[in-house]
Backbone:
């Protein structure tokens, strides 16, 4: 009986170096997101923006699902979503199959805000990438980042902004289909 092939053991310092690099890029990305939000007229916090992105990427959601995705208590998620409803960036509706179930969806204003912030972030990231010398590992970096995105359960960039499937299976921004 043959033994399964084991991947080569990673040295702890390799893992630590990767973790340090990811923490650094995380700070860069948070600062970039904060700058993108700061240019808006709407008073939206980073956690509120993240809730909007969850709705943009995954379609209509229950508050409990948004809370779980953001890693916050349901009561915190409810208050956050209440604020987004008051700002008219999100609206509530009752499901057609179960009238007790309340879901949230982006309003056109919420979709516009996500689009604007995404556009600003894309511009800043494009400038960052332009400052990196061409060649030497770009494709490997793309592969590594996509692997991390998948490991985090995040929807890839080229998929999430296309909308989500409505009840009839067609792309839809409207929960009614």
Residues:
């Amino acid at each position: 009986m043959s033994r399964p092939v084991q991947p080569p053991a990673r040295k702890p310092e390799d893992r630590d170096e990767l973790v340090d690099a990811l923490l650094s890029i995380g700070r860069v990305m948070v600062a970039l997101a904060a700058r993108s939000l700061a240019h808006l007229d709407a008073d939206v916090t980073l956690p509120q923006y993240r809730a909007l992105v969850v709705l943009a990427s995954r379609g209509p959601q229950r508050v409990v699902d948004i809370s779980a995705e953001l890693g916050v208590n349901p009561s915190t998620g409810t208050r956050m979503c209440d604020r987004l409803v008051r700002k008219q960036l999100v609206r509530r509706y009752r499901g057609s199959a179960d009238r007790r179930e309340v879901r949230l969806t982006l309003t056109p204003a919420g979709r516009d805000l996500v689009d604007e912030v995404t556009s600003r972030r894309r511009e800043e990231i494009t400038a960052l990438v332009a400052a990196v010398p061409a060649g030497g590992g770009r494709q490997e970096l793309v592969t590594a980042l996509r692997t991390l995105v998948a490991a985090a359960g995040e929807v890839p960039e080229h998929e999430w902004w296309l909308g989500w499937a409505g009840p009839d299976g067609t792309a839809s921004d409207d929960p009614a289909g």
